[in-house]
Automatic annotation (TrEMBL):
Locations listed in the record: Membrane
InterPro entries: MamF_MmsF
Membrane topology: Multi-pass membrane protein
Location, primary (coarse class): membrane
Keywords noted in UniProt: Membrane, Transmembrane, Transmembrane helix
Transmembrane segments: 15-33, 45-66, 72-91
Entry keyword annotation includes Transmembrane: yes
Protein name (database record): Import component protein
Keyword Transmembrane helix belongs to the record: yes
Species, as recorded: Candidatus Kaiserbacteria bacterium RIFCSPHIGHO2_01_FULL_54_36
Length: 110
């Protein structure tokens, strides 16, 4: 029986795709489900977001980071918004590139 429009098909591993956007938890789908093309798409985007988060954390730990804290907070808010968009796309069964980071995600090959 066909699924109604907008409802993800049951063969897609939605939970693993959602975990890909939850920071360091991207490691779980990377280990468990990287063979699934749907999950792999979301893992790549989640990895870009984690790299941005780690870069902002590293910058915040420096002396310069204290002076740039408003910028760091704005970038972190942007990462949170992109993660929410990615989660919504994953739950809806979509493979839609995130703004700004989707093009970087294509560069991951595993």
């Amino acid at each position: 029986m066909d699924q109604p429009s907008g409802i993800p098909s049951p063969h897609k591993n939605t939970l693993m795709a959602v975990l890909a956007y939850l920071g360091i938890l991207v490691v779980i789908p990377l280990i468990v489900a990287k063979g699934d093309p749907f999950v792999k798409f979301h893992i790549k985007q989640g990895l870009v977001l984690v790299i941005i988060e780690l870069a902002m954390w590293a910058l915040a730990m420096t002396m310069l980071g204290w002076q740039l804290m408003p910028l760091v907070q704005i970038v972190n808010l942007g990462v949170l918004i992109l993660a929410v968009i990615g989660i919504v796309n994953a739950v809806q069964g979509k493979e839609k590139e995130l703004p700004l980071v989707g093009s970087f995600a294509r560069n991951f090959n595993f």
